[in-house]
Amino acid sequence: MTDTLPMPVTALTRAQQTSLVNLVRRAAKTEILPRFRNLSAHQIDTKSGPQDLVTEADTAAEAMIARGILRLFPNAVVIGEEAASADPSLRQKAAEAELAFIIDPVDGTWNFAKGVPLFGVILAATRFGRPVFGMLYDPMVDDWVIADDLSHARIAGAGRTETSAHVSIGGELSDLSGIMHYYLMPKDTQAKLAPVLPEFYRMSSMRCSCHEYRIMAQGGVDFTLSGILNPWDHAAGVLLCQRAGGVAKMLDGRDYDISIEEGYILCAPNQDTWDRLRDILAPVLLD
Question: At 265, which helix (H) or strand (E)?
Answer without folding.
Answer: strand 265-268
